[in-house]
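Exercise: predict the fold of this chain.
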Amino acid sequence: MKTRITQLLGIKYPVIQGGMAWTSDAVLAAAVSKAGGAGIIGSGGRTTEWTREEVRKAKTLTDKPFGVNVMLMAPNIGEIIEMLCEEKVAFVTLGAGNPVPHIAKFHEAGIKVIPVVPSVKLAKRIEAAGADAMVIEGMEAGGHIGKQTTMALMENVLPNVTSVPVLVAGGISDGRALAAALLMGADGVQMGSRFLLTTECPAHPAAKEAIVKATDTDSVATGYSRNLGVRCLANAFTDAYTAKEIAGAPKEELMAMGTGTNRKGILEGDTVNGTVMCGQSLNVLNDVLSCQEVMERLIAEAKAAIERVKSIEL
């Protein structure tokens, strides 16, 4: 399956893994890359030393390309960028900040730059600034979200950004969604939640079980009225958080309330008082597979969906 993103990154399939905080480590990234996609190590909330160790570990686990997700608002952002340039990873995805000032430095180190963008305005700015590709991420995604849906972003961005590959993210949980993105004109997809449910992912078994058991109405976006939108599974914590949000609690109080809950939920398995960040397309997330099995299923589903479209009489 060849698209502009497979050619750019030197991968077999147009699928990259989301850089999920606390769970996107070297083992998961290497497994996704070995399966034909592009794995990503998540540096969000991590030290520079931890990230360097994971990058080096991934290099011992696969000779395939992998990348690192960089949160531009991180307090150690300068150190992270310097380290990645020294380690010369294949590519970076950039979020939570302005990527433009950092593109040239990564390019000087031979690293491809793929920012995550939420709007046409920023997409065109990123294109003009020389990014190698970009991810447009809809509010159906797990974790921090923007204000447009995935479909709206595809409608709005894809006709207006043509010189670089565009990947689609947000509620992309199976091969039919990959096919839909390709048919809309995208070059591939970024997937997070599907790779949470893999044997290589270090997410706590209780968190994986919560996702498997969830149905379509079981996710909620918290903090949306304070520009702190985060999508996760609904639970006692999100109920308490939403009650404070509706009552008018200040942004600082809400931020403090949410601090540490992601790790508590996804790594420690407290699915009641922590947060399990995942996307809205939950009903197709029914099993825990290896990354190889996930990729094989994705591609088979995508090919079948494309063949169905070909059979439509025009």
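Check your answer against the key: Residues 65 and 90 are 6 Å apart (CA to CA).
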